[in-house]
Design a protein that fits this description.
154 residues; mainly alpha; elongated
């Protein structure tokens, strides 16, 4: 899938094979089987071109990653604690990117991207949501807990 996502266009088994062979020895039938399996699972669509197929990703790598995160989060018996633990594992840069993503989803996307936090430093905290904008009992969705903060038992 990595090759299909990277190239962002329909690809043939031969193209993927030739690219993979730059790194390691691999058989044509192995690549063909993997692409066929991906097609059967619904990850790629294919269109006949002569005697071969061209394969194209059904969704983006970002959508795939989001689905994996959602699946893992949904499987937790304590989703809030899982999120706190996940945020605690994030670097300051990742938490900053998360804040930007939350702003975009909420519809209050900044006119221009916010500057990146200083390397190795902590990003400034986002101001809390004013009480009149927050629903009762709702945490500020734009705030991401720092590592070790929050009550994982909640």
């Amino acid at each position: 899938m990595t090759r299909v996502w990277e190239w962002n266009r329909p690809v043939t088994v031969r193209e993927v094979l030739e690219d993979l062979q730059k790194e390691r020895s691999i058989a044509y039938t192995t690549v063909m089987t993997v692409l066929d399996n991906l097609h059967q699972k619904g990850w790629v669509r294919r269109e006949a071109e002569g005697r071969a197929y061209r394969y194209e990703a059904v969704s983006t790598r970002a959508a795939y990653s989001a689905a994996l995160m959602n699946e893992a989060w949904s499987a937790s018996d304590n989703p809030a604690a899982a999120l706190v633990a996940f945020f605690g594992m994030m670097s300051p840069e990742q938490r900053y990117a998360l804040r930007d993503a939350v702003r975009m989803v909420q519809g209050d996307e900044p006119a221009e991207p916010a500057p990146a936090p200083p390397p190795g430093g902590r990003a400034e905290r986002e101001p809390p949501v004013p009480p009149e904008q927050a629903e009762e009992g709702e945490a500020d969705a734009g705030e991401v807990p720092a590592a070790g903060s929050g009550d994982p038992g909640r």
